[in-house]
Specification:
The protein is of the alpha/beta class. The chain contains eight helices and ten strands. The protein has one domain: LCP protein (Aminopeptidase), CATH 3.40.630.190. The strands form two sheets. A six-stranded mixed sheet has the order 7-6-1-2-3-8, sandwiched between helices. It has a four-stranded mixed sheet with strand order 5-4-10-9, with no helix packed on it. Helix 5 packs across helix 7. It is elongated and about 90 Å long. The relative contact order is 0.16.
Length: about 220
C-alpha cells in the first residue's frame, strides 16, 4: 500500500514539474520576444467616432504615459485632423506631433461594442469608454494564467490591429505593473468649433502647438 502511494506521489510530482516547466517556457517566450523587449514602445487606440488614445511605455523608467486626443482634434500646423481612416496613419501623426520616436509601434481600431466585449471577459463588467477601461486595467493585478488568454482577449478588443499576443501582453503587463500618468492634448477650446471650409461644415478642436510640444518633451524625458 505504501509502495503504491509512493508511486502515485512520484507521478503527481513529475506531472506538476512538467506542467510548471511548460508554463515557465511559455512565459519566457513572451518575455524574450522582440515586441516585449523593445523600449520605448508606442500604442495607439483609435475609437470609432470617438477619441484617440496614445500610450507610451518606457521600461527603463517603468512609466506608462497615456495621452487622450479628443475627437475632431486638428493640427493647425499641418492643417489636418489627428484621426484618419487608418489607425497606423493616426499613430504616425501623433508621433510626429509629439516629436517622439520608439522601438516598437502598435495600433488598433476599437469601438464601443468591442470595448464592452473585452471588458466583460477580462474585468467581468460592462464598460464602453476606453479611458475608463485603461484606468480599470491599471488597477487590475495580472493573473499568472493570463498569458493563455491573451490571444482571445485581443480578438475581442480589435481585429483591425497590428498587435499580437506578445505586444498585447506587454501593454497589459506595463499597465498593471508600472506607474501610469494620464494627459490631455490641449486645444484652444474644450468642445469642437464649427467652421466652414469650401462650402463644407466641419467640426474642429484646434490643438495648441506649443502645449503639444511641451507635452512631448515631458513624456520623452
Amino acid at each position: 500500500m505504501k509502495k503504491r502511494s509512493s508511486i502515485i506521489i512520484a507521478v503527481v510530482v513529475v506531472v506538476i514539474s512538467i506542467a510548471l516547466g511548460g508554463y515557465f517556457l511559455y512565459l519566457r517566450s513572451f518575455k524574450m520576444s522582440q515586441e516585449y523587449r523593445n523600449t520605448p514602445s508606442h500604442f495607439l487606440f483609435e475609437v470609432k467616432k470617438g477619441d484617440i488614445y496614445f500610450v507610451r511605455i518606457d521600461d527603463e523608467s517603468r512609466m506608462v504615459h497615456v495621452v487622450r486626443f479628443p475627437r475632431f482634434s486638428f493640427d493647425p500646423v499641418t492643417k489636418s485632423y489627428i484621426e484618419s481612416d487608418y489607425p497606423e496613419e493616426s499613430l504616425r501623426k501623433v508621433e510626429k506631433l509629439l516629436n517622439l520616436g520608439s522601438n516598437g509601434s502598435f495600433y488598433a481600431l476599437v469601438d464601443e461594442e468591442s470595448i464592452d466585449d473585452f471588458s466583460k471577459v477580462v474585468l467581468k463588467k460592462e464598460m464602453k469608454d476606453f479611458g475608463c477601461l485603461l484606468k480599470a486595467l491599471a488597477k487590475r493585478s495580472m493573473n499568472p494564467l493570463d498569458i493563455f488568454k491573451i490571444h482571445e482577449w485581443l480578438r475581442k478588443l480589435s481585429t483591425d490591429t497590428n498587435l499580437n499576443r506578445y505586444s498585447f501582453y506587454k501593454f497589459l503587463y506595463a499597465l498593471s505593473n508600472f506607474g501610469v500618468r494620464y494627459h490631455e492634448a490641449v486645444g484652444i477650446t474644450k468642445k469642437p468649433v464649427v467652421v466652414k471650409v469650401e462650402g463644407k461644415t466641419l467640426k474642429r478642436i484646434y490643438l495648441i502647438p506649443e502645449k503639444i510640444k511641451e507635452l512631448g518633451r515631458e513624456i520623452g524625458e
